[in-house]
Every structure is written in C-alpha cells, then in structure tokens.
Amino acid sequence: MRLHTKLMLGISILIIVMGSIIEFTFKHIMETNLKHEIGTKALSVAQTIANMPDIQAAFLTDHPSTIIQPIVEKIRKQVGAEFIVVGNRDEIRYSHPNPNRIGQKMVGGDNGRVFIGESVITESTGTLGPSLRGKAPIISGSKVIGVVSVGYLQTEIHKEVSQLQQKIFAATLIILAGSLIAALLISFNIKRVLLGLEPSEIAWMYQEKHAILESIHEGIIAIDTDGRITVVNETAHAILGVPNDILLRGKRIENVLENTKLYDVVRSGRAEYDQEILINGDVYLANRIPIIDKRQEVIGAVASFRNKSELTNLLKELSHIKAYAEGLRAQTHEYSNRLYTLLGLIQLGSYKEAIDFIAKEVDVAQGFIQFLMKEIPDPIIAGFILGKVSLASELKIDLTIDRGSSFKDVPVEISRDMLVTIIGNLVNNAFEAVRESGNEEKTVSLFLTDLGKDLIIEVEDNGIGMDAKIQNQILKPGFSTKKTNSNSGIGLSLAEKAINDLDGYLTFSSTKGEGTIFTVAIPKSRRMLNEGEPRYRSINS
User: Fold this and answer.
1) Section 75-92 average pLDDT
2) 447-480 pLDDT, tens digit each
3) 127 sits in which H/E element
4) For 376-511, where are the alpha helices, taking DSSP H only?
5) Is 345 helix (H, G, I), strand (E, B) or coil?
6) What's 475's DSSP letter?
7) Which CATH number does 376-538 carry?
8) 217-310: which CATH architecture?
9) Distance (Å, rounded) from C-alpha 472 to C-alpha 468?
10) Which pTM value belongs to this model?
11) What CATH number is given for 3-159 in this structure?
C-alpha cells in the first residue's frame, strides 16, 4: 500500500472513530443536561402550583376539579408541559389534559415519597407515555392532602438529542472530507520531500547506509548546521573511546571531539583533505566535506578519520627515502658549487690550490662520516642525521653535531622510528626558529649521548626564542606561531607523543630573542612514570 493511500485511510479511520466518540459523548451530556433542566423546571412548576392558595382551598370544596382544572390547564399551556395532573390523597385526578380522565386514578406508581412530604423528580410511564415528572406535595397545615405532577414526554427530549446528533454527524462528514483533502496534500508534500521514495524504500536505504558505514574502516562523523552529531559509526566510537551503547547522536560535536574543525567546514562550505588531528593521543588523517542540498545550501558536514599508524610501514619507507633524497639533493647542490670552484682553480692554473681544496673537502667529509659511523652506528639514525646536515647546508644553516655525542648503546626494543620522529621534529622546529630570527649566523646544535641509564637528545638553536605565554602552549596539538602553514603546530606534539610512548620526558629552556634548548631523556630500560608525573617542563632562563 502506497504512502498517500495509508495516510488517507488512517486519517479517515481516525476521524470516524473520533466523530463517533464525540457524538456519543455529546449525546450523553446533552441528554443528561436536558433531563436535569426539564426535571428541575417541572419540579419548580409543581411546587408553585402546590403552594397556590386557590389550589389548596379547592380541596375543601365539593367539586375541586371545577376550580383546579382551569387554573392548571392555563399554567400547562404557558410552561409547555405535556401534562399537569393534580390528585388527592387517594390519587384521584382533579385535573388532566384529557378531561375524560378526570376522576380516574393516577398511574405511574411514583407518589409514595410525595405523600410523606418530599418533592421529587421521577421517570415513569403514564397514560401519555414515558415522561420526566416533577412532583410536589399539597400541604394543608401539617398534613399532605394531595399531589401535583408536572410532566414532559421523553420523546421530546430524544427529539432534541437526535437533532444534535444530526448536526454532529454533518460536522463529522465535513471534517472527514477536509481531512481527506489535507491528507492527500500532506502525502504529496511528504513524497516530494522524500524524493518520491516510499517508507519501505527509505528503510531499505537506511539499512544499506548503516551497513556501508559499519563496513568502512575509517571513523565517520556527520553534523548538522547547529553542530550536533547526526551520524557516527562504530569505528568512530572506537576511535573516540566511547562504548557503542552510549548515544552520541544529538550531542554537540565540540563536547565529543575537541579541535575537530568540522563546524568550521559548515560555516565556510569548503572541504579540507588529509589534515592531521590528535585524538586520544593518536594521530589521525581527517577529511572534512560539507553536505550540500539541491539548493546549493550547506546543511551539515561529514568527517572521516583514519589512524595514521595504519600507514606506518609505507610512511616509514617513504620518510626514509625522502630523507635520503633530500640529503642527496642537498649534497648534489653543495658539491656542484664546490666542483665549480675546483673548475675555476684549474682554469686559472692554480693546481696546488686545487689539490689542497680537494684534500680538505675529502678530509672533512670522510671525517664527519667516520665520526657518524663510529659514534652513531645505527644506519637509520645516522643516515637521517646526515640528510639533515645536508639540508641545513642548503638552507644556509650551520647544523653542528657535538663531537662528544655517542649513540652506540641504544637498546633494540627502542623504536628507531620514534627516535627519528623526536630528533627530526626538534631539529625541524629549530630550523624554523633560526630562519625566522633574521640572524646572520643561523646555528643549530645537536647533542646525543647514551651515557648512564638514559638516552639524552639535546637540540639548541639561536632562533627567536619563546616568551612565557608561548611556552605554556607550545606542546598543545595544533598550536603554532606560524600563520602560513595549515599543518603546522603538530610537530612538537608528535615528538611529545613519541617521548611519552618511550616513557621519557622533555624539558626546554627558552629566552625571547636569544634561542631555545630542548632536552629529551629516554630510559634505556622501559618503565612507567608515576601517575600524574609531568612528562615535560619549562625551565625559564
């Protein structure tokens, strides 16, 4: 059955049922009220007649009916009663609408309470049919000498109630017709909003969408224009660390995930791809896309999150290859300049100077490489440092490796990739600091040592330094003093995460305009720090 047919049928049944209930209720209320009103009126008329002196005096005459009948009939016509009967103690009529029944005994059997002095309203069947009666005693002195019965036929009451029923029925038909038209219009409007789909089709599409969302290995979160979550899959629950039985739908996105920037996409309407974000200490790649309706208006946004560690193996290889490539490119550039110098010396005939220049370069290069091979025998760390030295040379930065460095005793269980992450981000941060300083001499110093129980990594620069406000925020994910790079502000937080994963800690000392020293200590034997112990601290100089 189609949607508009269901709506019309459902509304028709509802209107018919409601109309029947209303008709029955009003009929009952109307009938009760009419009976009460007519009964009260009849009783009032009966009491008035019973208290009339002429009526009471007529009982003392030889022919009471000749006095009572004219008085009562006049009153009956004025009040519209069906009958007014006056009878004596023996229930013999002294008045009746039909004069032929005067002198006959009253019928109905409802005068018992009246003869003990009570005024009552009763329902009974008399010679004229079922009636609603008001009865009052006629009292002379302290003795009941007669009874007055004023009656209205119940057929008149039923007639009025039937007229009301007809009006209610007509109104119900009008409401039903209007409701059918409204149901038809509503169904067409709903069908237009639902793009012509039937509820069964929508239910199937919902189940299909749910299955698709749950099959996606990425976390999916969607919000509306108010920033409230509308869709969240199980993977997103796992990423956020929220059990599936806790309902996230309807909550504001900032209360569930800080720094999501998803609401910014709703406001700007611009998609963002491959943005790094920290969630519960892990790095994720986020894609944020606005949801646009057919009127080209933004009605929400959806974000997907994928754990960057899932791409670790590939990223490791690419990172190493990229580092080596950068090192080779920088070396190629640097040695091209030296070859041009050597070529110039030969063209000038300065052969001795050319030989000395070659010997010096060979000694310096071989000496540095031999130093790295001896003191930092791990090929991954040594190769990475060699690449950074070459990159620094290209950037006109003097990167020096402290000759007292030694990184021979690095336990195999300590991840080399984490060490590369720590060293690389600290060195990159130092490069940025010295490049922004404007100093003619841009120097960065790297010191590594494995003496004692900890591995020590120290990076010092003569860059711009940091004031106290920046020092308090420098390790927050997304914080950066640089305004040109949308991905900045993540390097130091990644380094800190790697340090935490290795149970180490980070200290730094910085002076505005003079430079910064970062020091990292990583225990050779894995241990957990006491709960609540800070993993980094600032030492103001």
Assistant:
1) 88
2) 999 888 899 999 999 988 887 777 666 666 545 5
3) none
4) 379-394, 416-437, 468-471, 491-501
5) helix
6) T
7) 3.30.565.10
8) 2-Layer Sandwich (3.30)
9) 6
10) 0.41
11) 3.30.450.20
